[in-house]
Structure formats: structure tokens, C-alpha cells
Design a protein that fits this description.
about 350 residues; alpha/beta; DNA Methylphosphotriester Repair Domain; Arc Repressor Mutant, subunit A; 4-stranded mixed β-sheet; about 40% helix; globular
Length: about 350
């Protein structure tokens, strides 16, 4: 890793990240900045690991992919899947395409909450569910999406959706996707009623949040596209451009009665303003329960749209934020000034 980093080898981008102790930043191997002394470096497998070690993202090489483009090798894989949605790209074929299987597994796990193999399988199952809901026969749905037998299709379908395909013609799922933003990649999810997930991919609690969506809604998460996600993307673009103050996309955020009361109150905090945890506790009828409202705040699964970043300490200091204090500072700065966040 040291050799690849010092050489600026871009082929290692996504495989590891380098934290520079003297500056407190972490970079891609291909970062064009002047290389530090080897003794000042430490290496991490994921963005998440680097951030949890206290490093912030380099502004030159943008390891959070805040430039809005996936790596070329990911774009190539997605193009391959779009050309042949039923493709089952195994390790040998990935290598023939110049992609290290471990690299693909790590990137998709980090950005989509599942391995590349699971991502491909979820795509196929999602398309099969769509066809079943449109009236397609079980034969067409199973054999038309890369499943060699009815039994294999039924087993995979039931495991993923929680019901056999024969009971799924009116079935539902959470459609998920990744959205690039000026504050890093976001994992988003929607059902027909609205947005049910918007999280930072490098958040420590991301696995727990994904599981909470599955458990609360009783639905599987399937990568794909959805009109609600299209609407969310548009409103996020306007928000980050400083032209949108309020989100109108509907949200679906089931939780405990206390959590739901906290999240509803968060949505009443005006754009460009903040309140304290103490005030939030008073507004939900639990004066003195700052710690409890802080926990509910941190359990919010729809960041930005449900603006938990607008809650700060009584002293005016930022307090905590699941997405990292640097993001909280950027979001509050955007709302205070209205100046667009640069990608």
C-alpha cells in the first residue's frame, strides 16, 4: 500500500485510503497532493474506517466521491449490467473486466449496503417482482431473470421478499439507490407513499438504519428506480444549490411514538434556524429529557429532509451528528447563507 500511495497509483483507488497524521486528512492513492513521509501515514480499508479514526476527507482527491461521478470501473460495471440485466458476473468475469472482486464487494457494500453479488441478485429479483405485479407468469419471471429453476427462484425470492412469488403479485419493496451530493454519497430508499431512507454511506450506524427500514416496514430493500426517488433527487439538487428551503417530497418514517413525535417536531424547525436539545425536549412534552431526544434525533433515518442537523447544544456548540460534525457545519452554513455547496 505504501508503494502504491507514494506512486499515486490510481488502480488502487477504492481498495484502500491513506490517513496523514500531520494534516488529519485522508486521501485516495492517486491523490495529486505532495506525498507525506511514510512514517506519517496509516492505511484504511474503507472511508468509514478513516473517518472513524478522526480523519477528514481531502479536498483535492475527494475520496467521498463528492464530484458526483462513480469511479470509471464502477460505471463500467453498471453499464455492463444495464446492457444485460440478467448477467451474473462472477469473480472470473470481473477479473476479465479488470475489476478485483474484493474491490467490487467492498465498494458496493460501502455505497449500497450489500455486496456486488447481492446487488446483482437484488436487481434481478426486483425486476422479477415488477413483472409479477404486472401480470407476468411465474415461468417468465423466473426463467427470464437468470434463475435456472423454479425452486431456486422461489427460494431466493422468499428469502429476499419474505413471501413466495405466488403471493407477491401485490407485493411491495423498498427501492434503493445512491445519490451523489456535495456532502458525499447518500443511500436513499422509497416506497410508493414516500421517502423512507436518506443516509450517509459512511455513517457508523448505516447497517442498523438499513435493518431498521426492513424491520419497520417489513419489506426487502431492492436497488432500482422509483418516481419518489426522482422527486427526491430534484429537491436535493435545489436544496444544495441554495434555492429550496422546504422539502415537499412525502416521507414514511415509522418509529416508536416518542421517536415519531421528535421527528415531527424536527420538521417544524424553520430553515436557517436552530434549537437546543433542551428546547426540543420541551416541545415534545418531555422537559429535561435532552438525552432521550438526542437518541431519537440520532435514530432519524431520513437525514436532511427531516432536519436533525438543526438541533445544537444549549451553549450554541454543534453537539453531535451521525453524519459527522463537518457535514452538520456545512448544512447549517448553507441554510444560514443560502450560498450553494460546491461539488
Amino acid at each position: 500500500m505504501e508503494r502504491a500511495f507514494l506512486a499515486g497509483d490510481a488502480s488502487f483507488d477504492g481498495i484502500f485510503f491513506t490517513g496523514v497524521r500531520t494534516t488529519g486528512i485522508f486521501c485516495r492513492p492517486s491523490c495529486p497532493a505532495r506525498k507525506p513521509k511514510p512514517e506519517n501515514c496509516e492505511y484504511f480499508a474503507t472511508v468509514r474506517d478513516a473517518m472513524f479514526a478522526g480523519y477528514r476527507a481531502c479536498k483535492r482527491c475527494e475520496p467521498l466521491l463528492a464530484d458526483g461521478r462513480p469511479p470509471d470501473w464502477v460505471a463500467g460495471l453498471m453499464a455492463r449490467l444495464d446492457a444485460d440485466p440478467e448477467a451474473r458476473l462472477k469473480a472470473e468475469e470481473l477479473r476479465s473486466l479488470g475489476v478485483d472482486p474484493a474491490r467490487a464487494r467492498r465498494w458496493f457494500q460501502e455505497h449500497h449496503g450489500m455486496t456486488f453479488t447481492a446487488f446483482c441478485r437484488a436487481r434481478r429479483l426486483g425486476k422479477a417482482l415488477g413483472e409479477l405485479r404486472s401480470g407476468a407468469s411465474l415461468d417468465d419471471a423466473a426463467l427470464g431473470h437468470g434463475f435456472g429453476s423454479h425452486s431456486g427462484f422461489r427460494d431466493a425470492f422468499a428469502k429476499h421478499f419474505g413471501a413466495p412469488p405466488g403471493q407477491a403479485r401485490d407485493g411491495r419493496c423498498v427501492v434503493t439507490a445512491m445519490v451523489e451530493s456535495p456532502v458525499g454519497p447518500l443511500v436513499v430508499g422509497a416506497v410508493d407513499e414516500g421517502v423512507c431512507l436518506l443516509e450517509f454511506t459512511d455513517r457508523r450506524m448505516i447497517e442498523g438504519q438499513l435493518e431498521a427500514v426492513r424491520r419497520r416496514l417489513g419489506l426487502a430493500l431492492v436497488p432500482g428506480e422509483h418516481p419518489v426517488l426522482d422527486r427526491l433527487r430534484g429537491e436535493l439538487r435545489e436544496y444544495f444549490a441554495g434555492t429550496r428551503r422546504d422539502f415537499t417530497v412525502p416521507v414514511v418514517a415509522p418509529g416508536s411514538p416518542f421517536q415519531e413525535s421528535v421527528w415531527a417536531e424536527l420538521c417544524r424547525i424553520p430553515y436557517g434556524t436552530t434549537i437546543s436539545y433542551e428546547t426540543l425536549a420541551e416541545r415534545v412534552g418531555r422537559p429535561g429529557a435532552q438525552r432521550a431526544v438526542g437518541t431519537a434525533n440520532g435514530s432519524n433515518r431520513i437525514a436532511i429532509v427531516i432536519p436533525c442537523h438543526r438541533v445544537v447544544n444549549k451553549s450554541g456548540e454543534l453537539g453531535g451528528y451521525g453524519g459527522g460534525l463537518w457535514r452538520k457545519k456545512l448544512l447549517l452554513g448553507l441554510e444560514r447563507t443560502g450560498e450553494p455547496l460546491a461539488k
